[in-house]
Amino acid sequence: MPAVPSGRPYPTVPLRPMVVTADEAVARGRAFHEVMERRRTVRDFSPEPVPDGVVEWAVRTAATAPSGANVQPWRFVAVTDPERKRRLREAAETEEREFYGRRASAEWLRALEPLGTDWHKPFLERAPVVIVVFEVHKGPDSPRPYYTKESVGIAVGLLLASLHQAGLATLTHTPSPMRFLNDICERPPEERASYVIPVGYPAPDARVPDIRRKELTEILVRL
Ligand code: IYR
């Protein structure tokens, strides 16, 4: 077995590599991009329920993300109970009213104008599922995590991709501060909410902001 600095052995298993030819690799990259480029942040949801199992598969996929020291410092709370969603909306709107009315700088509010957001968060009740994502910090039953934000951020990216390719719409919502979510989601203090993600089918008449993504030449530097 390979040696590590402490001298303790660590077990290994054979890799199960994805075997893809060079031609196929480009075709797959393009095909995946065609799926992913249609993902939009959606604020108008249909109340139609999400098929059983979709959220579970998405969470399993999220949990394949790499994480610092493989601590897997994430917890996903799927809220479907209408009364709990109502409480979540009420508490989030209280924070958002403060944000839009007082806390946000003029510069920040100007940056949000093209998105048309305000303190109203009806989607927190209307979407059939709201996934609250928590970072799990050191606690009685949890080890110290490393690169926590990075790890959970990657996991959320995979979660959004899984839900999108299953035909569901999502909204990456970030109420601030988020402490109220521990109470509503019945989570201990070592868990800290970092995303609130309404999930569901888009409303039939859903519209989204007319915004563009940067061109490859603006974001890719080749050296
Ligand atoms: N959390 C607020 C404000 C907000 C902030 C950013 I940065 C956005 O991209 C969108 C909204 C809200 O959810 O309305």
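Residues 96, 99, 112, 115, 117, 173-176 surround 3-iodo-tyrosine (CB under 6 Å).
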